[in-house]
Amino acid sequence: MIVSDAPLPLVGSIAELRATIGGWRAQGRTVAFVPTMGALHEGHLDLVREAGRRADQVVASVFVNPTQFAAHEDLGRYPRQEAEDARLLAGAGCHLMYAPTVAEMYPDGATTTVSVGGPAEDLEGAFRPRMFGGVALVVAKLFNQVRPDVAVFGEKDWQQLAVIRRMVRDLDFPVEIVGVATARDGHGLALSSRNAYLDDGQLAVARGLNGVLAEAAAKARAAAPLAAVEREAHAALLRFGFDRVDYVAVRQAETLAAFRSGVVEGPARVLAAAWIGTTRLIDNLPV
């Protein structure tokens, strides 16, 4: 049943979701979809607004997906604020919020998994080996549930975007995938729900990530040897105050493969993951 006191219509079951979207389809309307894990910020709302420019109706999901978290990761403390998310979505032009339970998404006895190779195999895939299998599974399920014409994702999670694009091509999902540029604060820090974990001092450190990546991208564009670019950026992050750096890498933009020549040849992206205390931040920039 649709929850009537929410700032916008909210459904929690696949049946309710399909009934609502079926009504739109019967009227000839197109549908755009924005999948999220909630704790929404301006970056998410940029995605909703872009979705509204590309289709008649916009659906956003709010679901903290357990299959992409390892046991030691922050599933339990990941920020949740469903009522506020609904208010923000309504203000950004969303027409329906889909907030399923874990039991609705993963019924007892579910055993099917999705495995994505290629762009999923390194970087985040090496440091968070569960993540992309969980992302691919939940996104595939959401696409089958919503059946959108277009789905909108943020470029902050560039590797995730590449994985989803690969999955959509490989599995013939009839959906257009749109990437939206990373939303940043006035200091260049990529907006992220996990920024809420940071105190003021940690935020000052975090705001150095974008500048280090910008310098690395400039060097890579100038055909500097990529091993040196990556090594220097890694050291710069530690000097800036990051406690640990998982990786800094310049990769081919679409496939996330390394450049065999050791210099940039064609579209590229510089990507990084680094820690401040117990908070792990990721970011990337085009080269």
Description:
The structure is a single chain. This protein is of the alpha/beta class. It has ten helices and nine strands. The protein folds into two domains: about 10-180, 3-Layer(aba) Sandwich (Rossmann fold); about 195-285, Pantoate-beta-alanine ligase, C-terminal domain (Pantoate--beta-alanine Ligase, Chain: A,domain 2, 2-Layer Sandwich). About 40% of the residues lie in helices and about 20% in strands. The strands form two sheets. Strands 1-4-3-2-5-6 form a six-stranded parallel sheet, with helices on both faces. The longest helix has 16 residues, at about 130-145.
Reported by name, the CATH topology of the largest domain is: Rossmann fold
Helix content: 25-40%
The CATH homologous superfamily of the largest domain is named HUPs
Mean pLDDT: 94
N-to-C CA distance: 48 Å
Strand content: 15-25%
Identify low-pLDDT runs. 1-6
Radius of gyration: 19 Å
Question: What's the CATH architecture name of the largest domain?
Answer: 3-Layer(aba) Sandwich
Order of helices and strands: EHEHEHEHHHEHEHHHEEE
